[in-house]
Amino acid sequence: MTLQQLPKVGPKTLSYLQKLGIRTIEDLITYYPFRYEHLKITPLNQVQDGDSVTLNGVIESNVQITYFKRRMNRLHFRVQSQHRFLSVTIFNRHFLKPHLTIGKEITIIGKWDAKHEQVIASDLLLTPLEKEETRGIYHTTDGLRVKQLQTLIDEALSYSISVVDNIPSSIASQYGFMDKQEAIRELHHPTHTQRLKQALLRAKYEELFVYMLKMNVLKEHKHQEEGISREIDDYLIESFIKKLPFHLTKDQNHAVNVIQKDLERTYPMNRLLQGDVGSGKTVVAVISMYMNYLSGYQSALMAPTEILATQHYENIKQFMEPYSIKVALLTGHLKKREKEAIYQGLEDGTIDMVIGTHALISEAVSIPKLGLVITDEQHRFGVDQRSKLKNKGQMPDILYMSATPIPRTYALTIYGDMDVSSIHTMPSGRLPVKTYMKKKSEMKDVLTMVYEELKKGHQAYVVAPLIEDSEESTLENVEVLEKNFNKAFGKVFRIASLHGKMKEEEKDQIMNDFKENKIQILISTTVIEVGVDVKNATMMVIFDAYRFGLSQLHQLRGRVGRNQEQSYCILISDLEKERLRVLTQTTDGFKVSEEDFKLRGSGDLFGSRQSGDLSFKVANLKQDFSLLLKAKEDSSDYLHSDDFKNQKDPHLNQLVHEIYHLD
Ligand code: ADP
Ligand code: MG
């Protein structure tokens, strides 16, 4: 049966339904209410003015309609209810008039107006309520009334449509789930609180089960791939680590160990390494690249900006020099001759490691012995960009790095097909960045605090949302701030600005000057957001902080606090102070991102693939996390069960088959 076969469903209704994501009859009957309304006849002798009432009444008069401007209208009629005569008024329901005939019994839902003995109705039910009833309220879209949607769903429910049950029968009986048809009915027309709860639980479980089943299949599919298997000499790795200028933190050590196991295993590594800015992901990447080198393969590390790529390059080169490992930097701004030399070196294997920007995925680049691919700030790259780099080699191992940590709940779903390592602890000796909120009117305080830091020989970042003055906006901008900071500090300190419209060389020059402390105050837009490492900077001032997301602010704050001294972050904002407060309370990126998720949803933080994956219809990741974990385990067990092998639930075998062919 199709949607068109339902009464009164034309192209217009179809397009509305489509907007709601309803394309089939099955979609329609599994389009569940987001809340319920409990209806129960109100005894008229107990009502007071202003009370909400639900009354059954028989229509006693003709309906009068008054039309106003802007397509407003009012219906007025009289009814007999509980042996009394009452007036009923309802707005904008002119289309109901033909149904409201004298003698007809209806249910009136609304507010009691004692003075006029009338109900100001919000809704009329043409089929009167017989006893208590709970009805669903549905999200809808402009043009399609909730009532219409309800009627359509009820119509569809009156046919016995068979729906696929994605919960394997064995699991359904293990949990004692009710039958799916029954659950669907209960969700639209609840009969009992307890039963509704069970129906909802079933629906959530089913959704999570299917999702995790897919994730498990993808993961296992990857596990069957033939990648590079290698043996890595523990001794060499240990001595490499011993020579580092610091001790690895517990989480770094753990990450290094699991990565080594990943690399030694036959199937390709597919791991996400997440941790706050400054938590020391880079050195984990460095050790991984060294492992890869020892087994005779080339490594490539891709970063989203030139500044970041260059920084990684210089860093990594330093670590590798003692071992005479050849490291190259490939960005779009190299001269043709330089580029070609790198292409050549990669091709003939004289370059062991290449660090770069998008330039790495250019057609001209060929890396025949590519064994390890690392993407920094992975969410900044599209899926196809990442796979282009990966395809330069044959089943290389892959490590993604992200400084936008995701709470475990989300990591399991967004990255359900990956392994995830998290670095929670900062390298020891680091003090958490002290964060304050200031109003624009407190600028004097802010300047004093900046001066205190500069006096100690430290440096400061200043961030503004705009580059230049704009008539439409009162937001702070880099140009004006540069002038103002020059006025305040120009005699003693050097101030420079940086923004995305500048030429690459200009930016690099300024960044280098800042690194070398030739510049003390760097004023910029968010171009410095990613990964920049200037240890002597201890002050971060962010103007109009409300313009930025919490995770973004947290990232910016991560530019400071990179040495043993106390660092500070000042958020200047006259708006949204409640939202920003969490930053003054914690420096834990996992907590900040949790808060960000709560406020903004996941869509803004990640690309469309990921946010699409997160939009569950009935399940709610926060509330249903333990259910998700169960579904994850159950679906994995199921994939290895005899029931699955013997195709006891054939549509699930079909589903899995389809996933295999998608990937
Ligand atoms: P991330 O990439 O996670 O933002 P980095 O790898 O750039 O962080 O590390 C930040 C700084 O901390 C670097 O200067 C790095 O050398 C240093 N660092 C990394 N690990 C440690 C450690 N275990 N102890 C002390 N310093 C460390
Ligand atoms: Mg980094």
Overview of this protein structure:
With 663 residues, the protein is an alpha/beta fold. The protein has 23 helices and 21 strands. Strands 11-12-10-13-14-9-15 form a seven-stranded parallel β-sheet, sandwiched between helices. Strands 16-21-20-17-19-18 form a six-stranded parallel β-sheet, with helices on both faces. The longest helix is centred in the N-terminal third of the chain and has 31 residues, at 193-223. The chain is globular, with a radius of gyration of 32 Å. Adenosine-5'-diphosphate (ADP) binds next to helix 9. Adenosine-5'-diphosphate binds next to helix 9.
List the main descriptive attributes of the protein structure presented here:
alpha/beta; binds magnesium ion; binds adenosine-5'-diphosphate; 7-stranded parallel β-sheet; 663 residues; 6-stranded parallel β-sheet; 21 strands
Quick recap of the structure?
The chain is of the alpha/beta class. Helix content is 39%, strand content 18%.
Question: Helices, strands, pairings?
Answer:
Blueprint: H1 11-19, H2 25-29, E1 35-39, E2 52-59, E3 64-67, E4 73-81, E5 84-91, E6 105-113, E7 118-125, E8 133-137, H3 146-158, H4 169-175, H5 180-188, H6 193-223, H7 234-242, H8 250-264, E9 270-275, H9 281-294, E10 298-302, H10 306-320, E11 327-330, H11 336-348, E12 353-356, E13 370-375, H12 383-390, E14 397-402, H13 408-414, E15 419-423, E16 434-438, H14 443-455, E17 459-463, H15 478-489, E18 495-498, H16 504-515, E19 521-524, E20 537-542, H17 550-557, E21 568-572, H18 577-585, H19 589-600, H20 608-614, H21 625-639, H22 642-645, H23 650-662
Parallel strand pairs: 5-7, 9-14, 9-15, 10-12, 10-13, 11-12, 13-14, 16-21, 17-19, 17-20, 18-19, 20-21
Antiparallel strand pairs: 1-8, 2-4, 2-6, 3-4, 4-5, 6-7
Helix pairs in contact: 5-6, 6-21, 6-23, 8-9, 9-10, 17-19
The protein binds adenosine-5'-diphosphate and magnesium ion.
